[in-house]
Amino acid sequence: MTDTTSPKAATRPSLLYRIWDHELCYSFRKSHLTVGAAVVTLILILAAVFANIIAPHNPFDTASIDLMDSELPPAWVEDGDPRFLLGTDNLGRDIYSTILYGMRISLLVGFASVILSAVIGIAAGLIAGYVGGKVDAVIMRIADIQLSFPTILIALLIDGISRGILDRELHEAMIIPVLVLSIGISNWVQYARTVRGSTLVERNKEYVQAARVIGLHPILIMIRHVLPNVMGPVLVIATLGLAFAILTEATLSFLGVGMPPTQPSLGTLIRIGNDYLFSGLWWISIFPGATLAILVLAVNLLGDWLRDALNPKLR
After folding, report:
1. CA-CA-CA-CA torsion for 216, 218, 223, 228, nearest 10 degrees?
2. What is the pLDDT of residues 50-91, one digit of tens each?
3. pTM for this one?
4. Is 92:280 a contact under the CB 8 Å cutoff?
C-alpha cells in the first residue's frame, strides 16, 4: 500500500494540477479568442441538451400550438407578444424554443455523422497504411473516386436511395439515421488519407517491429500501438468536421431533403423563413441563421486552435 503521507507523496502534483499545467491547456488559456469560442460552444451545446427545461414552449407538441399566434414579431417589436421572445413562425411555434430544439437535432446529426466518418476513415486508413500493397491501392482508389464527387451530391444520392427503398412514413421516421449515414459516408475520406499517411510512418518504427517480433496479431498492433500515435490529426479533423457536418445537415434541410417541418432543425427553420423573408417576416430565418453561424464559427475556431496546438512546428 502506498503511503500518501510520505514527503514524496505530499509533494507529488495532483492530476488536476498536471492537466492545468500541461502545454496544451496553457496554450488554450493564453488564447482569449479560443476560450471565448469554447464558452460559446459549451453554452450552445448545453442549451440544446437541456432544451426541454430551458425552452418556454415545446414546438413538437401540436396540442400546445395555436395558429392564432402565427407570424408574431419579436417581443420588443411593435405588435410583439411577451410570451414569444423571438417571435413565432408561420405555424405559431415559438422561434426561441424551436431554435433550441432544432439546435439539438443539428448537433445530434453532426456528432453522430462525425463519429461514423471517423470510425470508417480510421479503420480504412489503418488497414491501408499497415497492410499496404493491393489493399492500400484499392482503398485509396475508392477514396480518390469519392473525392471526385461533391459531398452534398453524395449525401443527396444516399438520401435519394433511401427514399426509393423506404416508404414515405418510414423514411420520415428514419430521417435522422438516414442523414447521419448520408453525411458520415460522404466525409470518411479525409480521416482515411490522414491516418494512412501517419500509419505509413509509424509501422516502420521500433515499437511496432518489437510488437511483431513477440507475435502480436496485426489488428492488435494497429489498435493498441499504432492508433494512439495517429489520433492527433484525427482530433483536428473531427473538430473541423463537426462544423462541416452541421452545415451539411443545414444545407440538406434547406434543400428540402433533410429534417421535415414537423421536426425542424436549424436548416429547416432557415428554409421555412426564406419563404416568408420578402413578406417582412425576417425573424423566422434571421435568428436560426445567426445561431447556425455562431455555432459553426465557434467550433471552427476551436478546430483552428487545436490544429495549431498539436503542430510541433508552431509550438
Report:
1. 90
2. 988 888 888 877 777 777 878 788 888 887 788 888 888 888
3. 0.83
4. no
